Amino acid sequence: MTKVCYVLSFVVLLFTSTIAHCETVVKSSLEDQTDVKLTIYNNDLALVKDIRKVDIPAGSGELRFMDVASSIMPETVHARSLNNPDEFAVIEQNYEYDLIDANKLLDKFVGKKIKIINWNDFQDRIEEVEAELLSNNDGQVFKINNEIFLGRPGYKVLPEIPENLISKPTLTWLYESGVETGHELEVYYLARKLSWHADYVVVLNDTDELADLSGWVTLNNQSGASYKNAGLKLVAGKVNVADARPGGLERRSAYKALAMDSAMFKEQSFSDYHVYNLRRKTTVKNNQTKQISFIELSDIEIKREYVVNGDKTYFTRRHSGRSNKLPVEIYIKFSNSIENNMGAPLPAGVMRVYKNDKDKSLQFVGEDRIDHSPKDEDVNLKLGEAFDITAEKKQIDYKEISSKMRESEWEVRLRNHKESDVVVSVIERLSGNWEVISNSHKFEKIDAFTLKFDVKAPKDKEVVVKYRLRAGI
């Protein structure tokens, strides 16, 4: 604790009086911290709760609350005394972020004299000169012995650090305290550049019938501060945040968060969200990416699917008689249910899928992003496109029934070069009014604008799917 004294001079009639006024300045750093807690959201936002014991004398003074995040949102700061809540008040706050760096230091010495120290190779000795810094804008300009130098090699030595530069982001408060015993301060604030997301690893067995799944929480801290032995809570989803522009709102969906309960995390309901508490404390360093395991599941039944997706614009216009090659997409699908050894809601994230090759070496086979997935819902992952299964689509006939109705006939040729039989789903998407006039294979109407053919494709053979339909434009 230090005291800053200001000398105030008053002129009254024929005499001058001088009064010394002293103001208490208290500094608080991480050495005073007794606890820190983080609540991290998906949308690059975190709530920091910093608790410190600070010796604050009674009366009014200045408190410099140091070591806060450089990405702090100063307007969100709230401070209170836990042990004497009615005896402490902040009456003014300033956020000091003009941090020390080489350029800012030199800027403060423009028009002043500094030293430049350099090793003179020709004379084999250290050379020291006094120079006046004329400019630090897009290069340094010095005046040395009445000559102007555009840049000068060597170390620049400054006589002091200016008072208005600080080494750490600091909240400066004018306070009033009613007790001499000090305070246990609890300080809340929101900070940017702290985020988390989920990552998953799925390992398929040899037959693609079962899989093991592990999930990881990935934390990314670019906030400008470290959090030692912090209590950690995660919120899955995005809360609404007001736009920085006056009167404006940033329209963000408020997703309901999903429950997650595992050996590492405990889920709790809160308001319209669910908060996940890490069961132990962890240190989150600045500029660090940290991963924490949150789920381990095994023997999940999966289903591999091959899908050919059509284009709804095909059915209302004439095409050439040439065949168009279509990709055969690979999906795996599983039910997030207790019966399938799962049943834990999965936060949004990327699932990466692996499988052992014939040499028992694990290989990456694809990845896909999932949304928040509640229990008892299906999870579908697109892995890529099949190499040994091909599809070609061709328009066989086209007629204009009326100005608003078209009729067309199609064939899809599927060829399977794999070592086993497969089922390929041919999905067509339509618009307006439509109906199937004829078809070679049974189809399923998925919804008002989608139909699907599930076609068995024997190995080393070709299957031709034909259908004629009428569609409005």
- Rg calc: 35 Å
Number of helices: 1
Ranges where pLDDT stays below 50 over 5 or more residues in a row are 3-22, 245-261
- Please provide the count of β strands: 34
Distance between the termini: 80 Å
The shape, in one word, is elongated
Percentage of residues in strands: over 45%
Query: Helix- and strand-based class?
Result: mainly beta
CATH class of the domain at 2-98 and 169-192: Mainly Beta
Helix content: under 10%
Please give the largest β-sheet: 8 strands, mixed
What name does the CATH topology of the domain at 2-98 and 169-192 carry? Immunoglobulin-like
Summarize model confidence as the mean pLDDT. Answer: 84
CATH architecture descriptor text of the domain at 2-98 and 169-192: Sandwich
Give an account of the 3D structure.
This protein is an all-beta fold and 473 residues long. Among the domains are: 2-98 and 169-192, Immunoglobulin-like; 102-157, no CATH class; 303-328 and 386-472, Immunoglobulin-like, CATH 2.60.40. It is built from one helix and 34 strands. The chain has one helix spanning 102-108, and strands at 2-12, 15-28, 33-41, 45-54, 59-66, 78-81, 88-96, 113-120, 125-135, 141-144, 147-150, 155-157, 170-177, 183-192, 194-204, 210-221, 227-235, 265-270, 273-278, 282-284, 288-301, 303-309, 324-326, 329-335, 349-356, 362-370, 378-385, 389-402, 405-416, 422-429, 434-439, 443-447, 450-457, 461-472. The strands form six sheets. Strands 3, 4, 6, 14, 17, 18, 19 and 20 form an eight-stranded mixed beta sheet that branches. Strands 27-24-22-30-33-32 form a six-stranded mixed beta sheet, with no helix packed on it. The radius of gyration is 35 Å and the shape is elongated. The model is unreliable at 3-22 and 245-261 (pLDDT under 50).
